[in-house]
Amino acid sequence: GWLAGPSWVRYDELPAQPGDEAPDLELPDTSGGNRRLSEFWAYGPALVIFMRHFGCSCLMERWEALRDELDTYTEAGATVVAVCQAEPERAAAVATRRGYRFPLLCDPERKAYRAYGLLEGTPAQILHDFPWRPGDAETARTMFLEPRRGTERAVVDSPWQLPGEFVVAVDGRIQLAHRYQYCEDFPPKT
User: Fold this and answer.
1) Cβ neighbours for 122, distance < 8 A, ≥ 6 positions apart
2) Residue scoring higher pLDDT (153 or 131)
3) Those residues with Cβ within 8 angstroms of residue 152's Cβ, 6 or more apart along the chain or in another chain
4) Average pLDDT for the chain
5) Pairwise CA distance, residues 122 & 160, whole Å
6) pLDDT digits (tens, 9 = 90+) for 76-118
7) How far apart are CA 163 and CA 32, in angstroms?
Protein backbone atom coordinates (compact mmCIF):
# COMPACT_ATOMS: atom_id res chain seq x y z
CA GLY A 1 0.00 0.00 0.00
CA TRP A 2 2.85 2.40 0.77
CA LEU A 3 4.45 2.10 -2.68
CA ALA A 4 1.19 2.34 -4.63
CA GLY A 5 -0.07 5.31 -2.67
CA PRO A 6 -3.61 6.23 -1.68
CA SER A 7 -6.44 4.92 -3.85
CA TRP A 8 -9.61 6.43 -2.34
CA VAL A 9 -9.14 10.19 -1.93
CA ARG A 10 -12.50 11.41 -3.33
CA TYR A 11 -16.06 10.57 -2.40
CA ASP A 12 -18.07 8.44 -4.81
CA GLU A 13 -21.20 9.57 -2.99
CA LEU A 14 -21.94 11.80 -0.02
CA PRO A 15 -20.95 10.06 3.25
CA ALA A 16 -23.24 9.82 6.26
CA GLN A 17 -23.82 13.24 7.84
CA PRO A 18 -25.05 14.38 11.26
CA GLY A 19 -28.70 13.40 11.48
CA ASP A 20 -28.22 10.30 9.31
CA GLU A 21 -28.36 6.76 10.67
CA ALA A 22 -24.91 5.54 11.64
CA PRO A 23 -23.70 2.54 9.66
CA ASP A 24 -24.08 -0.49 11.92
CA LEU A 25 -21.49 -3.06 10.95
CA GLU A 26 -20.46 -6.26 12.69
CA LEU A 27 -16.72 -6.45 13.41
CA PRO A 28 -14.52 -8.77 15.45
CA ASP A 29 -13.20 -7.48 18.76
CA THR A 30 -9.78 -8.28 20.21
CA SER A 31 -11.00 -11.70 21.38
CA GLY A 32 -12.13 -12.57 17.84
CA GLY A 33 -15.84 -12.51 18.76
CA ASN A 34 -18.12 -10.43 16.54
CA ARG A 35 -19.83 -7.30 17.87
CA ARG A 36 -22.22 -4.83 16.27
CA LEU A 37 -21.38 -1.15 16.49
CA SER A 38 -24.96 -0.48 17.67
CA GLU A 39 -24.15 -2.31 20.94
CA PHE A 40 -22.17 0.75 21.95
CA TRP A 41 -24.96 3.28 21.48
CA ALA A 42 -27.84 1.05 22.63
CA TYR A 43 -28.04 2.60 26.13
CA GLY A 44 -26.47 6.02 25.64
CA PRO A 45 -24.36 8.02 23.24
CA ALA A 46 -21.18 6.52 21.86
CA LEU A 47 -17.93 8.07 20.71
CA VAL A 48 -16.77 5.89 17.82
CA ILE A 49 -13.11 6.49 17.02
CA PHE A 50 -11.53 5.25 13.79
CA MET A 51 -7.77 4.98 14.28
CA ARG A 52 -4.87 5.40 11.89
CA HIS A 53 -2.37 2.56 11.67
CA PHE A 54 -0.73 1.56 14.97
CA GLY A 55 2.70 2.77 13.81
CA CYS A 56 1.50 6.35 13.34
CA SER A 57 2.95 8.95 15.70
CA CYS A 58 -0.25 11.01 15.26
CA LEU A 59 -2.24 8.09 16.72
CA MET A 60 0.08 8.02 19.74
CA GLU A 61 -0.45 11.76 20.21
CA ARG A 62 -4.25 11.35 19.99
CA TRP A 63 -4.15 8.49 22.53
CA GLU A 64 -2.20 10.62 25.00
CA ALA A 65 -4.92 13.33 24.89
CA LEU A 66 -7.79 10.83 24.82
CA ARG A 67 -6.46 8.98 27.88
CA ASP A 68 -7.06 12.14 29.95
CA GLU A 69 -10.53 12.69 28.42
CA LEU A 70 -11.99 9.18 28.86
CA ASP A 71 -13.33 9.75 32.38
CA THR A 72 -15.10 12.92 31.22
CA TYR A 73 -16.88 11.00 28.45
CA THR A 74 -17.84 8.19 30.83
CA GLU A 75 -19.16 10.66 33.41
CA ALA A 76 -21.27 12.25 30.65
CA GLY A 77 -22.82 8.81 29.97
CA ALA A 78 -20.98 8.05 26.74
CA THR A 79 -19.36 4.81 25.73
CA VAL A 80 -16.07 4.98 23.84
CA VAL A 81 -15.24 2.34 21.24
CA ALA A 82 -12.43 2.36 18.68
CA VAL A 83 -12.04 0.71 15.29
CA CYS A 84 -8.57 -0.21 14.04
CA GLN A 85 -7.12 -1.73 10.88
CA ALA A 86 -5.45 -4.64 12.67
CA GLU A 87 -6.59 -8.23 13.03
CA PRO A 88 -7.75 -9.33 16.55
CA GLU A 89 -4.50 -10.86 17.82
CA ARG A 90 -2.32 -7.87 16.95
CA ALA A 91 -4.99 -5.40 18.11
CA ALA A 92 -5.22 -7.18 21.48
CA ALA A 93 -1.47 -7.02 21.98
CA VAL A 94 -1.30 -3.31 21.15
CA ALA A 95 -4.35 -2.49 23.29
CA THR A 96 -2.79 -4.28 26.27
CA ARG A 97 0.63 -2.69 25.79
CA ARG A 98 -0.81 0.81 25.41
CA GLY A 99 -3.44 0.40 28.11
CA TYR A 100 -6.49 1.19 25.99
CA ARG A 101 -9.48 1.33 28.35
CA PHE A 102 -12.15 0.92 25.70
CA PRO A 103 -13.26 -1.88 23.38
CA LEU A 104 -11.27 -2.16 20.17
CA LEU A 105 -12.95 -3.54 17.06
CA CYS A 106 -10.95 -4.85 14.12
CA ASP A 107 -11.48 -3.86 10.51
CA PRO A 108 -8.46 -5.01 8.46
CA GLU A 109 -10.46 -4.73 5.22
CA ARG A 110 -11.50 -1.17 6.24
CA LYS A 111 -15.18 -1.73 5.37
CA ALA A 112 -16.35 0.36 8.33
CA TYR A 113 -13.88 3.11 7.43
CA ARG A 114 -15.50 3.32 3.98
CA ALA A 115 -19.03 3.07 5.37
CA TYR A 116 -18.33 6.11 7.56
CA GLY A 117 -16.81 8.00 4.63
CA LEU A 118 -13.21 8.06 5.80
CA LEU A 119 -10.94 8.75 2.85
CA GLU A 120 -7.30 7.94 2.39
CA GLY A 121 -5.06 10.96 2.68
CA THR A 122 -2.99 12.31 -0.15
CA PRO A 123 0.77 12.48 0.42
CA ALA A 124 0.42 16.17 1.37
CA GLN A 125 -2.14 15.25 4.07
CA ILE A 126 -0.05 12.43 5.55
CA LEU A 127 3.60 13.31 4.95
CA HIS A 128 4.92 16.66 6.02
CA ASP A 129 8.68 16.36 5.81
CA PHE A 130 9.65 14.82 2.49
CA PRO A 131 8.39 14.43 -1.09
CA TRP A 132 6.77 11.10 -1.89
CA ARG A 133 6.65 9.42 -5.30
CA PRO A 134 4.70 6.29 -6.26
CA GLY A 135 6.95 3.24 -6.33
CA ASP A 136 9.80 4.93 -4.40
CA ALA A 137 11.01 1.69 -2.84
CA GLU A 138 14.31 3.18 -1.64
CA THR A 139 12.67 5.86 0.55
CA ALA A 140 10.09 3.35 1.78
CA ARG A 141 12.81 0.87 2.72
CA THR A 142 15.22 3.29 4.39
CA MET A 143 12.76 5.64 6.14
CA PHE A 144 9.65 3.64 6.91
CA LEU A 145 9.91 -0.10 6.50
CA GLU A 146 13.31 -1.29 7.73
CA PRO A 147 13.76 1.08 10.71
CA ARG A 148 10.28 0.21 12.00
CA ARG A 149 10.32 -3.55 11.29
CA GLY A 150 9.84 -5.58 14.46
CA THR A 151 8.66 -2.57 16.47
CA GLU A 152 5.23 -1.31 17.42
CA ARG A 153 5.71 1.42 14.78
CA ALA A 154 5.96 -1.07 11.90
CA VAL A 155 3.99 -0.02 8.83
CA VAL A 156 1.65 -3.00 8.60
CA ASP A 157 -1.73 -1.39 7.92
CA SER A 158 -2.59 1.27 5.36
CA PRO A 159 -0.43 4.30 6.10
CA TRP A 160 -2.73 6.44 3.93
CA GLN A 161 -5.97 5.86 5.87
CA LEU A 162 -7.27 9.02 7.54
CA PRO A 163 -9.00 8.62 10.92
CA GLY A 164 -12.33 9.97 12.11
CA GLU A 165 -14.44 10.34 15.22
CA PHE A 166 -18.22 10.16 15.43
CA VAL A 167 -20.72 10.75 18.20
CA VAL A 168 -23.75 8.50 17.76
CA ALA A 169 -26.90 9.02 19.83
CA VAL A 170 -28.95 6.27 21.44
CA ASP A 171 -31.36 6.41 18.47
CA GLY A 172 -28.46 5.41 16.18
CA ARG A 173 -28.18 8.79 14.47
CA ILE A 174 -24.86 10.54 13.96
CA GLN A 175 -24.68 13.68 16.07
CA LEU A 176 -21.14 14.71 15.22
CA ALA A 177 -18.91 13.62 12.34
CA HIS A 178 -15.26 14.60 12.47
CA ARG A 179 -13.41 13.27 9.45
CA TYR A 180 -9.76 14.21 9.74
CA GLN A 181 -8.44 16.38 6.93
CA TYR A 182 -4.86 15.38 7.77
CA CYS A 183 -3.39 12.94 10.28
CA GLU A 184 -3.10 15.45 13.16
CA ASP A 185 -6.54 17.06 12.70
CA PHE A 186 -7.67 16.16 16.23
CA PRO A 187 -11.21 17.15 17.20
CA PRO A 188 -11.70 19.58 20.10
CA LYS A 189 -12.72 17.97 23.38
CA THR A 190 -15.98 19.92 23.31
Assistant:
1) 6, 9
2) 131
3) 54, 55, 94, 97
4) 88
5) 7
6) 999 999 999 999 999 999 899 889 999 999 999 999 999 999 9
7) 23
Q: Among 41, 38, 42, 60, which Cα is nearest to 51's?
A: 60
Q: Are 85 and 104 in contact (CB under 8 A)?
A: no
Ramachandran angles phi, psi of 94, nearest 5°: -65, -45
- CA-wise closest residue to 84 among 102, 66, 65: 102
What is the tens place of the pLDDT at every residue in 149-169? 666 665 667 888 999 999 999
Distances (CA, A) of 95 to 105, 133, 157: 11, 33, 16
Q: What's the pTM value of the predicted model, to 2 decimals? A: 0.89
Q: How confident is the model at residue 186 (pLDDT cuts 50, 70, 90)?
A: confident
As a three-state string, the secondary structure of the chain is CCCCCCCCCCCCCCCCCCCCECCCCEEEECCCCEEEHHHHHCCCCEEEEECCCCCCHHHHHHHHHHHHHHHHHHHCCCEEEEEECCCHHHHHHHHHHHCCCCCEEECCCCHHHHHCCCCECCHHHHCCCCCCCCCCHHHHHHHHHCCCCCCCCCCCCCCCECCEEEEECCCCEEEEEEECCCCCCCCCCC
